[in-house]
Structure formats: C-alpha cells, structure tokens
Amino acid sequence: DVQIVASGGGLVQPGGSLRLSCVASGFTFSDHWMHWVRQLPGEGLAWVAHIDSDGRRTNYAGSVKGRFTISRDSDKNTVYLQMNSLRAEDTAVYYCARGERGFDKLLDSWGQGTLVTVSS
Amino acid sequence: DIVMTQSPDSLAVSLGERATINCKSSQSILYGSNNEYALAWYQQKPRQPPKLLIYWTSTRESGVPDRFSCSGSGTDFTLTIASLQAEDVAVYYCQQYYTTPVTFGQGTRVEIK
Description:
The complex is a heterodimer of chains A (120) and B (113). Chain A is mainly β.
C-alpha cells in the first residue's frame, strides 16, 4: 500500500525556519513527482511546490518562491520542504502528495499533513 | 494562473437525493495529447487529507462508488452525487492539473439536510 508520512511541523517565530520531511513507501519513489500542498486554517487547498522524479526540476508558488526549497533524497524515499523567512500567513497544514506517474500534476495519493504555526 | 471557481460554497441535501457541484475554469484545460480535460475532483472529510475521486473529468479512482460522476466541457464542469449517503459529507474540491501552478477551487461543503 502507498504510504506518505509528513513530519517536522511545529511552532516557529516569524522570520524563523523549519524543515518538513515526507517519507514515502509502497511505490517506486523515483518514478513520481512529489508535491507540497498547504491548507490554511479553515480554508481551501493551495499548491506550494513540486519536484520532478529525478530531482532536477522544481517549481514554486509565487507566495513562497525565494523562501521555500523543495528537495528529495531517493536513497531515503524522502522529500523535504525547507521553509525560511516564515510569515504568519504561512501558518497551515502542509500535505505531501504524489504526482501520478505520467501525469505528474495529478495528485493521486496524499499524506496526513503536518501543522506549521508561525507566531510570536 | 488558471482560476478555478466552484459553486455553491455549500449545500445541504437530504439522504438519497442528488447533490450537484459546479466548477468553472478561467481558461481551457483541454489536454491536447488525449483530448481530455485535465480536471480532477477531491473529497476531504474532517481531519483527513484530500482523497482523489475523479480525474480526466470523468474517470473514477479505484474504489470510488459509481454514485459519483462528473461531466463537462469547455470551461464548465459538474460533479454529481446521485444519491447522497451519510459518508459523503465532506468538502469537495476541483483541481486543474493542466499547467503549473496547479490550482484548486475554493471548495464546496456538502452536508445532510
């Protein structure tokens, strides 16, 4: 079975940094793009970033570009989201999701999410 | 960015009745290589991550009951729950995966009347 487990969330002060991790299992990790999607409290879904299957190409939402970095480690079946210069408006549940093989921006499996709270 | 707009924001339907959710894209999401619309629907139940329900406008994900269906063309799409069950209470999101950034509708909350 496909399993995607995100971790690393917590409380951080404005301007601070946090690194989220997402461990995947049950599928060939190197075949799939991986995405981060966030959900602000009581709000809808907003795509944050993706990384292609071999880690060469990344893309970011405008609101996080220059502050967040997505990366992956195929040896550990893990994707990361390094978040710097955090702002209150980054407070959200962050989900890690798998892109469908072949149609990479179709998010066919999601992890449980990890809560990031940016507050002083 | 492609803007996805859902309507209504919420609806209450009696058990066994039909629920209909609309989704409109701000531009075409027709995928040229297969002539299908790059539109997906997700279901999110409380305290759970979203779950893929339907993609390529009308293809149900494995295990999704056939009371869920979707149709549409151009820039207008509809998700229909033919006979609402208690377990269908959730927020439903449409998403375009035609281009980056992928974008979601704002969500439609479905409740039991």
